[in-house]
Design brief:
It is built from 9 helices and 11 strands. It is an alpha/beta fold. It has a 9-stranded mixed sheet with strand order 4-3-5-2-1-6-10-11-9, with helices on both faces.
Length: 237
């Protein structure tokens, strides 16, 4: 089956991996997501991933509790490595060869991030998971996703969430929130949309990297996006 995209960067939040527990790892959603990813990879779509660490710790929230900000962000980066290893193990048990590359060197656990090696892995049919964010404090994993998507020349950045796309305000809090199927980068920044941070939007705008925000909890949405090119969620371009 020919895919709508040749190469994508999928951004997963740590909260999605926690499921209903909202903390730690819940292997029911992990298995469901990984099964979809493994099946799609077998069609020839090149898949890279960036995973967050919010199911264990968020650097900015830890800093609010009194931990020094740089230290807090480093703790958050390590949480993303735990999640990346969990995804790798699950994907490989499903027959999908996977490589984890980290922005912080830890050679006994994963490869260091090397752009050309990552692209080579993708071209050879391996799923590549980028962990430890950008390797620097003060940058979110959304920014890391925008950076890695640009570096590997992805066709699109797919932002997996628990909502069906972008709204002009929080649909949980406001019943009159308006769904936005298409948004420009400039409007996303002007409206201060919280779906991604300003640095991530700006980086995607500078590199003309389209962003699709969609609900990953709806089974089949990943395949509809990656293989069928269906209009799922919201697009920032």
């Amino acid at each position: 089956m020919a895919g709508a995209y040749k190469r994508v960067l999928l951004k997963l939040s740590g909260e999605i991996l926690a499921g209903a527990e909202r903390f730690g790892l819940n292997y029911q959603p992990i298995n469901e997501i990984c099964r979809e990813i493994a099946d799609i990879a077998k069609t020839g779509v090149e898949i890279a991933m960036v995973v967050g660490g919010g199911n264990f710790i968020r650097g900015i929230q830890a800093a609010d509790q009194g931990i020094e900000r740089v230290q807090a962000d480093q703790m958050g980066m390590l949480a993303t490595v735990i999640n990346a290893l969990a995804l790798q193990d699950t994907l490989e048990r499903m027959g999908a060869p996977t490589r984890v590359q980290t922005a912080i060197e830890m050679s006994s656990i994963a490869e260091p991030f090397i752009r050309r090696r990552a692209i080579s892995h993708l071209e050879n049919g391996k799923i590549v998971i980028f962990a430890a964010g950008t390797g620097s404090p003060y940058f979110s994993t959304d920014t890391a996703a925008a950076l890695r998507a640009s570096e590997i020349n992805a066709d699109c950045l797919l932002k997996a969430t628990k909502v069906n796309g972008i709204y002009d305000k929080d649909p949980v809090k406001f019943q009159d929130a308006e769904f936005l199927p298409r948004v420009s980068y400039i409007d996303a920044l002007r409206m201060q949309l919280k779906i991604m941070d300003a640095a991530a939007f700006s980086l995607c705008m500078d590199n003309r990297m389209p962003i699709v925000v969609f609900d990953v909890s709806q089974r089949g949405n990943l395949a509809k996006l990656m293989l069928g090119g269906e209009n799922i969620g919201s697009t920032v371009s």
